[in-house]
Amino acid sequence: MNEHIGHIIHEITPLSDKDCFYIADRRKSEFTYPLHSHSEFEINYVENAEGVRRIVGDSVEIIGKYDLTLIASEELEHVWEQHHCTAKNIREITIQFSKDLFFGNFIHKNQFSSIRKMLHNAQKGINFPMEAIMKVYPMLDTLSAEKSGFHAVIRLLTILYELSLCDNYHTLASSSFAHIEENTDSRRVRKIYEYINHHYNEEIRLEDLASVVGMTPVALSRFFKLRSGKTVSDYIIDIRLGHVTRLLVDTTNSISEICYECGFNNLSNFNRIFKKRKECSPKEFRENYRKTKLII
After folding, report:
1. The whole model's pTM is what?
2. Angle at Cα 73 formed by Cα 250 and Cα 131, nearest 5°?
3. How many Å apart are CA 221 and CA 224, to the nearest integer?
4. 1 vs 73, 254, 292, CA distance in Å?
5. Which residues pair with 185 in a beta bridge?
6. Is 232 part of any domain?
7. Do 157 and 235 reside in the same domain of the chain?
8. What is the rounded end-to-end Cα distance, in angstroms, of the chain?
9. Do the beta carbons of residue 50 and residue 65 sit within 8 Å?
10. Torsion of CA 85, 86, 91, 93, to 10 degrees
11. Phi, psi of 154 (to 5 degrees)
12. Taking a C-beta distance cutoff of 8 angstroms, is the pair 38, 12 a contact?
């Protein structure tokens, strides 16, 4: 039986309909805001906060001295929580902008293709490596002091463009947790994604997938790994775990119920896989998530 266990707070941000973006550049000694989501897209830069725990969807990571994240989803819950951070001079720059910043068909022009791809991926949350942070830091550092609104918007667009050129950022939440489709230019890979997404809670045989795209099982395995960077079995596990974590967060179903509902057929094997991938047990994951929730 599904039963909701409270709600993630939906933040009403200070961004007005007449502004392109909102920026807050602040010094702080701790993180206190609860798990939340909001309609606006967000760039969040955090400095000098080693030991803070960043939660974006079902991604849980401990951050280092510098952290830069982009979230482009209305429903993806996220939070930076104090955890083991002892620093007292934390800097946090938060930029929130409407998805309508790229008005009309603007975002679909060729010149914005890299930004468009990045924003699609950022529906799962994106974290950027140090080289990307250093590239945009001078603009981030002075953006709040820019007196010309026009030039501030141009600078924000430049930040987004420079970040979109980074080829080794990593996405955070799983696609099944974030309820979005994986992005691919391959028709065959797209068919495989669709089949797995529709049948993740059933037994999926390699022969069945191969017949969907008209390939032999061996050829399919090689092709999928080459195009997606993952083995078929790893992708299936990722999809199933995304649904698992969503049910752990949103329902009070027992862990064994969730295990079998999401396509795992052995509870002990499920627990082992979950702990290896998430570095905690399903019970610990659920408890940690509940601690960051605001019950309303």
Report:
1. 0.83
2. 115
3. 5
4. 28, 9, 24
5. none
6. yes
7. no
8. 21
9. yes
10. 20
11. -60, -40
12. yes
Owning domain of residue 122: 9-173
CB atoms within 10 A of CB 210: 20
Please identify which residue in the block is written with the tokens 């280092």.
64
Please list, in sequence order, all residues whose beta carbon lies within 8 angstroms of the beta carbon of residue 187, skipping any fewer than 6 positions away.
Answer: none
DSSP secondary structure letter of residue 233: H
Measured CA to CA in angstroms, residue 165 lies from 11, 112, 145, 159, 181 at distances of 30, 11, 25, 10, 22
Residue among 19, 4, 27 nearest 96 (CA):
19
The single residue listed with the structure tokens 């949350």 is 125
Q: Which residue type occupies 131?
A: E
Write out the chain's pLDDT in tens, 296 residues.
333 334 557 777 788 888 889 999 999 999 988 888 888 999 999 999 999 999 999 999 999 999 999 999 988 999 999 999 999 999 999 999 988 887 667 888 888 999 999 999 999 999 999 999 999 999 999 999 998 999 999 999 999 999 999 999 999 999 999 888 777 778 899 999 999 999 999 999 999 999 999 999 999 999 999 988 899 999 999 999 999 999 999 899 999 999 999 999 999 999 999 999 999 999 999 988 877 654 33
**Within a domain: residue 89?**
yes
SS3 label, residue 152: helix
How far is it, in rounded angstroms, from Cα 192 to Cα 203? Answer: 15
Residue 296 lies in a domain: no
| Size (the chain), residues | 296
Based on the fold, state whether residues 166 and 233 are members of the same structural domain: no
